[in-house]
Every structure is written in C-alpha cells, then in structure tokens.
Design brief:
CATH topology: Ammonium transporter fold
Shape: globular
Strand content: under 5%
Oligomer: single chain
Number of helices: 16
Structural class: mainly alpha
Amino acid sequence: MWSAYPTWLNPGDNAWQMTAATLVGLMSVPGLVVLYGGVMQKRWSVNSMMMAFTGFAVVLIAWVLYAFHMAFGDPMHIFGATHGFLANIWGKPADVLGHVGEQGQASIPLIKTGPPFHFPTSTLVYFQFVFAGITPLLMLGSVLGRFNFKAWIPFVLLWCSLIYTVNAFGIWGGGWFAQHGALDYSGGYVIHLAAGVSGFVAAAVVGPRLRRDREVDAPNNLLMVATGAGLLWLGWNGFNGGDPYYAGASASAAVLNTNLACATAFLGWVALDYLTGNKPSLIGSVNGMITGLVAITPAAGYVNGWGALAIGAIGTIVVYLALNYLSRVRPFRNVDDTLGVIYTHGFAGLTGGLLVGVFADPKMVIYPGLGKTADITPFAGLIHGSATLLKEQVWAGLWVIGFCAIGTFIILKIVGLVVPLRMTEADMEEGDLAVHGHEVYPSDVPSLGFPSGTGGWTPAGAPVQTPTSP
C-alpha cells in the first residue's frame, strides 16, 4: 500500500525541523530587517532593510547551487591531501536542486556516529540555509550607514562561499575541528564569532560613517526595535531547539536553556546599568538580551540549567565591560562598528564557546553523536573534571578569529577592485533617497529636502488661488 512516509521518515522530527528552520528564518526576515530599520536614523532605514533582504536572498541561491555541499558534503582534499588539515577543512561544491526534488533521506557524509536523520535532504538544506543566511546579516550591523549597496551583493556571495562554508565544514560538517572534539551546538563560533570578527574588519576597511551620524546616533523607531528584538528572542527557540535534529529531550533542554540564559543576561544588563549609575535603556537591554542568546548558542544542549544561567550572567558581564570600557582603547575606539557587532556577537560568541569547555555536562540527555558534532560524553567540561574540551574550544576559536579576519580583508579588497566599497559622500549625506529613491516615512511635501522649494505646489486641502484681473 502506498504511504506518504518512507520507512526512514519520522513525521514529528520532520515537522519540528521545518518549524525550527522557519523560526530561524523569521529572525532574519522580518526580525533583523525590522530591528535594523528601527535602530538606524530615519534616512538609513530603507537602506538597512534592503541590504538585509538582499543578503538573505543571495545566500539562498548560492546555498542550493553549490555552497551546501561545501559545508556538509564530501571533503574536497585540497591539493590532493587525503589526511590531515587540508583534507578535512572544506567540502566539494555541488548543487542540490535535483536531489531536493528526489526527497531522499538527509545525511552528512563525514558523520559516522549516531542514528540517521529522519527527514529528507530538502529539510536539512533549508534548515542549514537559514543559519548561513543570517550570518552576513549579523555582520551587516557593523557597516550600516556607509557600505555601498552595489558592493554588498558580491561581498555576501564571496563571503558565504569562501568563509562561512569553511567554518561550517570544519566544525559542523565532520571536518578537522569536529574530529578533534570541538563543539559548537548552534553557531557561537560558526555564526556569531565569525560575524563579529568579519564585521569589525569590514568596518575598519570601509571607514566610519559621517561625523553627524556618529554623533547623533538615535534610533528612528523604538517600537520597531522592540518588535525585531522580540522576534529574535522567540525565533532563537528554533535556532537552538532544532540542532539536535530530532524532536526529543535534547531539543527541549536546549530551548529551556536558551530562554534561561537570555532572561538572565537581559536582567543582568539592567542591573549593570544601575550599578554603573546609568538609566536602563531599551537599546542597552536589547544588547543584553542578544548577548545572552549568543553566549548560550554554542552550549545550549551541552550544559544543564545552572550552566545556562552562569553563561548568561558571565556573557553579560564580559560584553557590558567590553562595550562600555574596552571600546575606548585601540583598536576598538578607532573602528566605527555601527551596532557594536564585535561585542554582542564576537565577544559573546567567543565567551560562550569557551564556556562550553567549562560547563559541558556529560550527564545531559543527548544521544551519542549529534549528527554534526562528536559525542560529548568523553569531553566533560572543566568543572566536571577535564580540560581537554576547553583546549579544543580555544583552538577552534582562534581559527575562526584568524581565518575570518584575513579572509574578509582579502574579499573586501577584491570586491573593491571592481566596485567601490564605500558610498559617495553625496549619497551618505542624502541617505535612502539617493540610494533607493524613497524613504521609510514618505512626506506629502514634494519639496522635502529641497531648501528652495518646489514651485507651484499646493498643500492638500488648501484652497486653490485663482488669479484675478486688476
């Protein structure tokens, strides 16, 4: 008898995986779109939202044409190497369009431990796409207000193809760092540390915003900021809850830990504001919320509740001090990181990744072999009696920092040879109207922005003056 479900497909696992992917997608569209559109000055709102939408679309096309297999396929064996680092750092490019249509069972070639996936290839491709898609959007936060829209598209394409896929393969796809025991549950290194470092380098290369944008850095719509932040908080349930790849106990633990760390960090940021004599602001509190979410991301399914609470608290203290005090010294004070991505994602991702090596609990309810990482059981954290995992977390973190910094710099220089990375001064002065031809809050006054006015314009509802003869 014909069945809609092959023997290997579990409807519950498949449904949760697609739901989790959609939650992660909502973090980008509209989550980050709305947040960026609200947190920037009025004349940069449309540009910020357009760049986020465009980056998301560019990554999807590249992902299904070749990039998915570069991150989760067979090893490329660079320069013919069959063993060692060069053999296990990058996957072979290949399209998945035909295979998606076949709806075959998903798999990751280098992962040999653990049960097989109980959902089709198309589900895995889309789930991993939303992670790849959000990463350059996070990086975008560092360069808002001056990055040339025409340069953004080729930059995202190259960065996704040459930087993201390497980190994903090495840590998630069964490559070099995974083989040595490094753990990154949902992207503290692959996504957030990479975005923070790359965004900081991009901000340094492109240069700062106009002086007036830096001096009057006021959001145009705090309601949009709050809405975007709320989508990030709840969307993160899919971010971390989908990474066990099955709808079981590990997913539940990861979701609970995620919300616990987020709440701890949010309230911790408010407390630090009071302790330092500042008023608790919405923007600051959102930074605290994001810090907690980022810090728990590499650890969500590897730590118990106490570990999640500790990571949320420690992450907040580290990022708060970095954002408010470390930012005053070189090189941080010399780089105009628009939204402080190096702090809320770079510092938070690194902190969370290192704390995996401290708080990882071998008693957590996870099955052996998580599909994209090694079995955690032999790698207890420092407080559980082993320093082995912490050592591997340090090496993986150093790799991501160095590789992303150098790789991003090279890609920017290459793109800059073809199209200017920085907007013209005239475009930066005018903003959205110059770049996109419209603004986020259109006025019914056609002379807006033209000091000399527009001749012949009559306000709506005003009586028309008919010339009279003398």
